Amino acid sequence: MSDSDFTYAAAPFDHAKADVILRSSDNIDFRVFKLFLSLASPFFETLFDIPQPAEENGDQEIKDGLVVIPVTEDGKTLDALLRFCYPCTLADDPNIEVLKDAMDVLEAARKYSLDVIETKARKAIVNPKILEVEPLRCFVMAHRGRLREETLLAAKSTLTQPLVPSWFQEIELLTATDLLSLLTYHKKCGDAVYALRLDLSWIKSHYGSSQGCSWLSGQYLYTDGYGSEYHNNCGCPRPNTPRYKLYDVSLQWWEDFMEETFTALLDKPCKEAVKASAEKTVQTVKGRNCQACSTKITEGMRDFLDFFAGKIEEAVSQIVTVFLKDRARVELLVK
After folding, report:
1. What is the helix (H) or strand (E) element at residue 230, kind and residue range?
2. DSSP of 142-197, one letter per residue?
3. Integer Cα distance of 210 and 228 in angstroms
4. Residues 234, 240, 244, 245: what is their CA dihedral angle, to the nearest 10 degrees?
């Protein structure tokens, strides 16, 4: 191949005083300094200690008077890897927000014994921006990369997805046993959260009394023509057989909200499931223009959502703890 078939990398990997060239798999030449790479990696330190020929021969290419070392990484991966190796005054650390890029950098960091960069790549794999959008792919990649803590974190994040996931390409990287383990964990989390409906004492303890959750009372203050004040019941329907009654009264919209929410939590045991149901209920109640409920629902539901999310986290965390203690199951997740 002629020189015209290769391109130079962008700054700072085009320095005129560089002392070696790394060539990516897609034929991009990176002019770099041996010192920076040797300080970052014992692999490169050993590589550069090997005497290099002064002139081009059949086994070693020389370009612009510099030894050319081909690598298997593509230009995008090599660029990210080298930016991590260079001093911050010359190159900022790359911002990795694509899961595949993080995995490519992780594999390269392991290959070249770049421990610090491996740690940064592991953090990138569970970057919230990636994890929130693609938790299942993050789980597969973390599992594939044998990253124990990242695998468990990604497994927890998959709870925002339906119990039975849609197909995605990387799912084929999982064995049937690994997938079953993940689905079992998801199911157990859903069951643990769903069990909260059987005993509502956790809600009563939070509010203390009916006065503490007046937004659920279905009453409003009425002043007659003589200045006397009375508590009147609102016009919102009451259920005949309430399942989620906390104190003296239960409202139908509260019953519907709780039933819909717990059904959703079986499939997605996470705060997002409660939030979606809460937003729907708030809009429904406010649309009725109820004197008692419409004015209090927004603030009351906001407080309850935060509290409910905390209880979900407690329940799910117990399942994670069980998985951590159960060595056999952890081994299914992270081999």
Report:
1. strand 229-233
2. HHHTT-HHHHHHHHHHGGGS-SSPPP-GGGGGS-HHHHHHHHHHHHHHHHHHHGGG
3. 23
4. 60
- Other Cβ atoms less than 10 A from the Cβ of 6: the count is 16
Alpha helices in the chain (DSSP H): 34-40, 42-49, 75-85, 99-111, 115-125, 128-131, 135-144, 148-157, 176-194, 201-207, 252-267, 271-286, 297-325, 327-333
Tell me the C-alpha distance between 143 and 67, whole Å. 38
Mean pLDDT in residue range 170-188: 89
pTM: 0.77
Query: Phi and psi of 21, rounded to 5°?
Result: -120, 125
pLDDT at 100: 87
Q: Could you tell me which of 105, 50, 48, 49 has the C-alpha nearest to residue 82?
A: 105
pLDDT at 223: 54
Give the per-residue pLDDT at 324: 47
HSE-CB of 64 using CA atoms within 13 angstroms: 17
Residues above pLDDT 90, as percent of the chain: 56
Q: How sure is the predictor about 93, in pLDDT bands with cuts at 50, 70 and 90?
A: confident
CA 286 to chain centroid: 33
Tell me, what amino acid is at 56? E
- Size of the chain, expressed as the number of residues it contains: 335
pLDDT beyond 80 at 234: yes
Cα-based angle 72, 74, 77 (whole degrees, multiple of 5): 110
Q: Report whether pLDDT(99) > 80.
A: yes
